[in-house]
Amino acid sequence: MKYLPLILANIVRRNRLRNSLTILVVALAILLISLLIGIQAAFTSASEVSDAARLVTRNKVSLVFPLPLSYGAKISALPGVQTVAGGNWFQGVYMRPENFFARFAVQAERFLAMYPEYRMSAAERDAFLRDRGACAIGKSTADRFGLKVGDQIQLKGDIYPGLWDFTIRAIYTVDQDAYDDTQMFFHWEYLSERIAQDAVGFFMVQVRDPEQAGDIAKTIDALFENATAQTRTETEKAFSLSFATMMGNVQLLLMVIGAAVFLAMSMVAINTTMMSAQERTSELGIQRALGFTAGTVGALVLVESETIALLGAALGFAMTLGLESGLKSALASFAPTFHVPLWAYAMGLLIAIGIGAVSGGVPAVRAARLRPVDALHAL
Amino acid sequence: MGIVEARGLSKDYYRAKTRVPVLHGVDLNVSEGEFVALMGPSGSGKSTLLNLMAGLDEATSGTLSVAGADLGSMSERARTKWRTRNIGLIFQLYNLIPVLNAVRNVELPLLLTGLGRKERRQRAELALDIVGLGDRKDHYPNELSGGQEQRVAIARALVTDPRILLADEPTGDLDRATSEEILGILALLNDKHGKTIVMVTHDAAAARRAGRRLMLESGRVVLQESSA
Ligand SMILES: Nc1ncnc2c1ncn2[C@@H]1O[C@H](COP(=O)(O)OP(=O)(O)OP(=O)(O)O)[C@@H](O)[C@H]1O
Ligand SMILES: [Mg+2]
User: Fold this and answer.
1) Ligand 1 within 6 A of B192 CB?
2) Which member of A2, A13, A290 has the closest CB to residue B99?
3) Whose CA is nearest to atom 9 of ligand 1?
4) pTM (2 decimals)?
5) Contacts of B112 in chain A (CB under 8 A)
6) Is A179 domain-assigned?
7) How far is A4 from chain B (nearest CA, A)?
8) pLDDT of A123-168, one tens digit each?
9) pLDDT tens-digit profile of A228-251?
10) Residue B57 is part of which domain span?
């Protein structure tokens, strides 16, 4: 503790600009890593929160090919199946293309029964189910566009051309960050009526016993083996993961770039800290000559670089907290459940300590090994 | 028994595996309370000898006892601790820590002692008073003149109340008048405070302030003369 003024003086009075920049670089590295962790977590959360009792049945060839509506009744009739709800990926544009959020046409009553995690009041739920032109949207999307129950919204269709009008009858909330509260659901019947087609993009199948999910999936696919449209049934988790791998390439690229930038930043921080210890060789020699032991001199160098790294971490955490909500809406279309988990901060802290240890460790050992006579010679 | 006793002291350096003998067979005796000037041509080994006395370096052969400690038999760590209590070092370049103000620079060696904060501060201020810089204690090294910086360095050497002050060309970088000030302070410390001083110098006028002059040449003490 008595060395504190010396350590602080070294940080605050010596090369203030350089130390500030080092702190900033560490902070940016921490910010970057927190955001990457947040995005990564958002990508994987969908598969983590999936319900093991839910299966997805879709066209074997590809998601873009539909299945006949009649398959739903056949699947429902299988033993062990509790509920089946058909649905379509609608896409469309709300005002501007960048206002992205997921939009699905679903067989609403059964769909909602399978998704208790999307919570809404009984009154709103009834209002939604009663009104064929109604939709339910997630709270994040409602907040993002200032929408409330009773508002009209219009989507411009792309997969299903034309202008589509809906009345918002329900706004659902979630009680876990990992659940997606940005989506919009509306009645599949509203879609099929207008396009005059009974085609379904996917069936969500809820089974009674998750243990049997795998067997039931096989039974479903076997059932349609000889039909014109064959099916592929997998657990919701596997489905989310295969969906995530579509995004996976983008994600991988992002991670690689992030890691590279992160490494570069760490190097910069390490390099500057090492330089500043190096420049001080003769001063460290003086301290040794004054009677500071090798251990004390080394420890002081290490504590100084750790202090800088931890100041950087503190700034990085502040920046992360400050940017998180802004980023959540900016990333809404890309990673709707984006949020920085607590463990990202723990990770950031460890990384900062690591940067401090590496950048301070080498000069600390060097300072400790310094022979005072040689150091004084360096004058 | 002298406070510094060297017998047959030798020091070789090795440069690219060739032996470079610097001191060979130095015999030296300094009594407590003496003020000795160590002179000699450049490269004759004055700094080397002073560093040995400070326990900063190890002799190749011979014995060296300083302030009652047999330096040859001590570990580097033991010498470091011993140095804190017994030796005050002053260099040609003032060697202050630029980011610490005068009083904190002076206080530095006291951090290694068990003294409390208040006590450390008091002692540091006292040491600054002794060198006549009591009114500059908040100044940083770059706000002080060369002579003032050297006085802070002397206060720092003094603050642990060591028995011996070792000074390597303390006036080497200063003009005549400022040198005289510094020498005056050293003489005062010797006179009034009873510090034993060994001072390396090139300057004959400076050497005359000492009670005894030693001449080092080709690694040996070749001449000794005392002031009348
Ligand atoms: N660390 C070292 N390694 C190798 N040789 C050294 C080392 N330190 C000093 N020497 C050599 O030892 C000799 C004596 O050096 P020293 O510094 O003791 O001389 P000096 O009498 O103090 O000279 P000056 O008056 O120039 O300060 C010189 O030849 C020098 O080159
Ligand atoms: Mg010298």
Assistant:
1) no
2) A13
3) B48
4) 0.69
5) 290-292, 296
6) yes
7) 11
8) 999 999 999 999 999 998 999 899 999 999 999 998 899 999 999 9
9) 899 999 988 777 766 656 556 666
10) 4-96+162-226
Residue A363: the pLDDT is 82
- pLDDT of B203-223, one tens digit each? 888 888 888 999 998 888 887
Q: Are residues A150 and A202 in the same domain?
A: yes
**Spatial contact of B185 and B151, defined as CB atoms under 8 Å apart:** yes
The finding on whether B56 has its CB within 6 A of some atom of ligand 1 is no
Give the burial class of A230: count Cβ atoms within 10 A of its Cβ; 0-12 exposed, 13-18 middle, 19 or more buried: middle
Number of structural domains chain A divides into: 2
Indicate the SS3 state at residue B160.
coil
Q: Kind of pairing, strands B4-15 and B61-66?
A: antiparallel
Among chain A residues, CA nearest to B116: A2
Beta strands in B71-125 (DSSP E): 87-90
The residue to which tokens 């996976």 are assigned:
A248
Tokens read off for B214 = 């030693």
Domain match, A357 and A279 both: yes
Give the number of domains in chain B: 1
Average pLDDT, chain A: 86
Contacts of B166 in chain A (CB under 8 A): none
Q: By residue range, what is the domain housing residue A209?
A: 61-229
Q: pLDDT tens-digit profile of A71-97? A: 999 999 999 999 999 999 998 999 988
3 state SS of A160 = coil
Q: How many CB pairs below 8 Å do chains A and B form together?
A: 68
Please give the mean pLDDT across all residues of chain B: 89
Which member of A9, A282, A296 has the closest CB to residue B99? A9
